[in-house]
Amino acid sequence: MKGVLWLAWRQQRLMILTGAALLLAVTGVVVWRRSEMMSLIDAAGWVPCPGWNGGCESVATADIMYPNSSGIRVLGALGLVLPALIGVFWGAPLIGRELETGTFKLARTQGVGLRAWFAARFGLAALFTLLASVLVAGLVAWWWAPIANTLDGPYWHDAAIYNATGPASVACAFFALTGGALAGLLVRRVLPAMAVTLAGIGTALVFVRYFRSSWIDPQTRITPGMTPKQQVGSAWSTGEFGYLTPDGREHSIRNVCQYSGEELRQCMAEHGFVARYHKVYPSSDFWTFQWIDSALYTGGAVLLLAVTLLVLRRRTV
């Protein structure tokens, strides 16, 4: 290792080594906690009851589910905020601190081009971002898998699971790093760049979360007449319930027949309703959502990186 790559390593090694130590500690805790959970499962002969179906509660369930579900949610929260931490505390200072303090001039005096200087710094940070986000996503998924979508959760659509596992979490981390680097380059001061980065990441997360349910159509579950409805199970409910007329028209429960039992039967008969409907996203949609989110974050990261390189090409800094 030499030249700009060696300089990049020297300037980022404290961040990398500290991050690696923290991830190693987290890995150790997860291995220990999951091992305990699996021992309890094996000793009790416990079989998870998928979805919120009722009738599955037991002493073994309480001992296994609740301590581990809370721990998994905490770990998932780490995965949820990891992109913001990377973007704000690594991406923004990556270039911004160099420009603010003028230390980039050392590389320039060695005849190193701006893009080569940036590539070494950003490439090293991107590599660690990839490794860290993949590791955290893998740990969350590994600990969660034996009790996934069971009783009161965690479920695949919970924020602590969805945003901390799968390819979308990795793509989001890379997007955050790229956004932070561009903010540092344009703002040229670390603290303002960190604020801009945090605002940008927050806006992107809110946008994707708000429009996610629009990417694909939900599944409509239809229950004829007064037949007991299919339980939600592990699906993500849209909250859209209602009734169907013989011609297939939908009538939301918010507007009519907010009853149960015999009153519901009479109300349905009065309005000519022949079935009830409920719109959900089944657990199989997890990967569809993940790949769409990943494409959005990756596309955004590529665009931000292209803008960064364009600015470097046209600016002497």
Q: Helical segment tally?
A: 9
Low-confidence stretches: none
- Name the average pLDDT: 87
**Dominant shape:** flat
- The chain-level structural class is alpha+beta
The main β sheet shows up as:
4 strands, antiparallel
What is the CA-based Rg, rounded?
25 Å
What is the H/E order? HHHHHHHEEEHEH
Percent helix among the residues? 55-70%
Q: Main sheet: which strands, in order across?
A: 1-4-2-3
How far is the first residue's CA from the last residue's CA? 26 Å
Give the percentage of residues in beta strands: 5-15%
Task: Describe the overall structure.
It is a single chain. The protein is an alpha+beta fold. The chain is 67% helix and 8% strand. It has 9 helices and 4 strands. It has helices spanning 3-44, 59-101, 104-109, 114-144, 159-162, 166-187, 190-211, 261-271, 285-314; strands at 219-224, 236-244, 250-252, 275-281. It has a 4-stranded antiparallel β-sheet with strand order 1-4-2-3, with no helix packed on it. A hairpin with a 5-residue loop joins strand 2 and strand 3. Helix 2 packs across helix 7 (190-211) and helix 6 (166-187) runs antiparallel to helix 7 (190-211). It is flat, with a radius of gyration of 25 Å. The two termini are 26 Å apart. The model has no long low-confidence stretch (mean pLDDT 87).
